[in-house]
Every structure is written in structure tokens, then in C-alpha cells.
């Protein structure tokens, strides 16, 4: 069984943004030649998330609005009391981002069948930035038979 791990780097551009990373995973799948197995996609940050959903512009805006309602940036959060804890000088006020991430997933597990991700017709693998803009990384691990 082949196991291939790769880290992809993303530069995000907005405080909350959603990026379709399906093509990155599919290209890695082609290079490795895994025919049957699974892909693990793992976000390496506490203020980002992953989701499998439709990548449609109006839905993406709905998702952002919904997340902002669940954890508004201007809410009162203990994590934002920076003066009460030891933090680096560039520590952001970002409790809302952590809370949003907790409501989503930090990983997705996708079957690979006949050399392709077994996603449904409208499904895409989405990387969700919740505290941008930043430089981010995502671990992709492909396991299976070639």
C-alpha cells in the first residue's frame, strides 16, 4: 500500500474566505497513481476549517453570513482579553475565528475509487479561512493501492 503525504500552501486574502482545493488533491492523486484507497485532508491551523460542499458563489456568501451570525467578531470573548495572558506581540483578537472553526471540521476523509475522488456531482473540498489574510498550509495524505 502506498502512503503519500504532501503539504499545500495557500495565501488567503480576506478575513473569511472559502477556497476550492479539489483540483490540488486530484492532481496529487494523478501523480501518485493511487487507484483505490482514501484521501485525508487536514487543516493545520486552529482558525481554519475544511468542508465538503457545493462551490457556488451565492452559497459561499450565505456561509460567510451564517458564520458571522454564529460568532460575531465584535462579541465579548474571554480569549480576546490579551492583557490577562502571555501572548506574542502580534497576537490577533480572534476568539470568533476559533469558535467558527469549532463548528466546522478540521479534516475530511474522501474515498478514492478507480483513481478518482469519490465526490458527488456538486461536491468540492473547501478550505475555509476564518482569520485571514494569512499564509496557510493543508496536509493531504493519500493511502491506497496503485
UniProtKB/TrEMBL annotation:
Domain of life, source organism: Bacteria
Ranges that cross the membrane: none
- InterPro entries the UniProt entry points to: UPF0047_YjbQ-like, YjbQ-like_sf
| Gene3D superfamilies referenced in this protein's UniProt entry, alphabetically | YjbQ-like
Per its UniProt record, what SUPFAM superfamilies does this chain match?
YjbQ-like
For this entry, the protein name equals: Secondary thiamine-phosphate synthase enzyme
Amino acid at each position: 500500500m502506498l502512503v503519500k503525504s504532501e503539504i499545500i500552501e495557500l495565501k488567503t486574502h480576506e478575513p473569511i474566505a472559502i477556497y476550492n482545493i479539489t483540483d490540488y488533491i486530484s492532481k496529487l492523486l494523478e501523480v501518485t497513481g493511487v487507484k483505490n484507497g482514501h484521501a485525508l485532508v487536514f487543516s493545520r491551523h486552529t482558525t481554519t476549517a475544511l468542508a465538503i460542499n457545493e462551490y457556488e458563489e451565492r452559497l459561499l456568501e450565505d456561509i460567510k453570513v451564517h458564520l458571522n451570525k454564529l460568532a460575531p467578531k465584535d462579541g465579548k470573548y474571554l480569549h480576546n482579553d490579551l492583557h490577562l495572558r502571555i501572548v506574542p506581540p502580534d497576537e490577533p483578537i480572534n476568539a470568533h475565528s476559533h469558535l467558527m472553526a469549532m463548528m466546522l471540521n478540521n479534516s475530511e476523509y474522501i474515498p478514492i475509487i478507480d483513481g478518482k475522488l469519490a465526490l458527488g456531482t456538486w461536491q468540492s473540498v473547501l478550505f475555509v479561512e476564518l482569520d485571514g489574510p494569512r499564509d496557510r498550509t493543508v496536509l493531504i495524505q493519500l493511502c491506497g493501492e496503485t
